[in-house]
Amino acid sequence: MGDFLRSAWIAIIQYETPRLVKIHNRKVGLVRRIIQAGIIMYVGVYALYLQKGYQEFGRVESSVTTKIKGVIRSELDPDSHDDPYSIHKDFPKALNAHGRNWFTNLKALYTRIWDVADYVIPAAENGAFFVATNVIITPNQTRGLCPEDNNDVKGVTCEPDESNCDLFEGKVRLSRPKVKPTAPDLKTRIEFEAMDLLFSNETTEDEDNGMMNKTNSQPMTVTETNALIGTRAPLTTRTATTPLSTAFRPLLTRKCHGKSRACPKGKIVYKAHGPLTGYCVPTDRPNARPGVHSCEVESWCPIEVDRLPLGKKRALMADAADYTVFVKNSVAFPYFGPQFVRNNLISNNGRPCLFKKDRPDPGCQIFRLGDMVELAGGNFSHMAIKGGVVSLSIAWHCNLDYDFMQYCLPKYSFRILDDFGWNFRHAKYHEEHRRSLYKLYGIKFIITVEGRGGKFNLKNMILNIGSGLALLGVTTIICDFLLLYVKERRVVKQKKYDYVTPEHPKPTSSNGKKNGDASTENPNLKLIRDNSEHSVLRGINREVSTMSSLAPLASQEHIELHVKD
Q1: What distances in angstroms separate CA 488 from CA 286, 519, 546, 561, one per listed residue?
Q2: Count of other CB atoms within 10 angstroms of residue 264
Q3: What's the pLDDT band for 395 if we cut at 50, 70, 90?
Q4: Are 172 and 253 contacting, i.e. CB atoms less than 8 angstroms apart?
Q5: If 67 and its partner were Cys, which of 326, 359, 397, 404 is the partner (CB 3.0–4.6 Å)?
Q6: This prediction's pTM
Q7: Do residues 147 and 295 touch, judged by C-beta distance below 8 A?
Q8: For residue 62, is pLDDT > 90?
């Protein structure tokens, strides 16, 4: 117990001091000073000045509201445009298929005034807004049955099977009459003969197309029918060129199934607009060749003609570059108190002003859309055709140690996120089963706000300085490593380190003397042994470790060693 207390007392009152070895070497000394200068520059310039290591930071909280203004007029003019991808590329064929007033109606459809309520959809978004620059309009769609678009949907082009047809009155499929009526009523006999002929293969395609036209004729009266029968041959005996009585054209429709099991009923083809009904009907595409048939679908009819009105070289609303958007941004730094709140209405005495691309003013917040795309590195005329996505970033990096209202200013930056196209479809409903479909191409602007506020903090400054001073210890490690490659490295090693090997007691002989302890011991060996014991005792009383030159204490053991480079 006494030995333990004595050892504890010695450990409490003893003092340890390192050995300091000074090595005169120009290369090692120069490397040491360069490393120390680099660490000091890192702490002072980068950590404290550039990264504001003497401040504490709080994130910014913000809100963004936008308001767009602008009105343009669009017009469809085929005489001044010859793009092969335009909706009117096969103008003569479209006239033959739809009538002479087809293009007149189409031109009137695209000749209109567009204001904010037309081209900004939706009207409000969180941190973003969309502006339409091109559009495909399909007016007055109704729920019904119509031929699928065989231009954009693969696998719906078919060939009708004339031996497998059905007759419809409106949407009701009729059954073929089995017994010929014997009543003398001419109207009843005409109805039977007409239906029997429609179910047969004797009608021509022109007659079928005529029967499908339900808007150009009205049912005939009995007198008119009698006059027709009295001047023409019976329906069952007429030739293929004999026109069918117009009395049944507004009521009856003939549809045939497709050959080779085409158009399976209920199947939904990839990219189709609805399930197939099982019938193969003439296509209604404007540029279709005569005699081309397509599978019938249940959908919103007519199916959209997915072609840009002015082709791939010009947008319908290219003048949208002159639209302007007012971006109001309010920010706050609640971490530092409620007094740090402001908005971006800075210049012009707090009133909105136009942001000019040649002279950017951070105090202005009205942007021209064409300038925003150009500042992002894009071309508005090209992007307006297919659409794209542009980012507007507002950065608030504020030093709250200075005047908040004078020096805390926003910084605007623009970049293009996507220029490969942006479009979606939007419908305007006139009533429950009637709508107009708009496929809108345009530019989506995404607004992001980021930033932080900083204020002086003594604790953070002390921590950064202390961390930098601790890095100075790296110089000792690097210099000690370099000393292993100098010429006199063995001398340096002998001066820098002491190797102490504790002695173990020698075994004693039976007479009580140590082995080898003879009275005839050589005096020279005895002297060497005494000196060795003295060195061991002296080595125990000092620290054996790697010394640092940053501890200039008077009690240190100083050794100067000159080493050649």
Answers
A1: 96, 44, 18, 10
A2: 13
A3: very high
A4: no
A5: 326
A6: 0.68
A7: yes
A8: yes
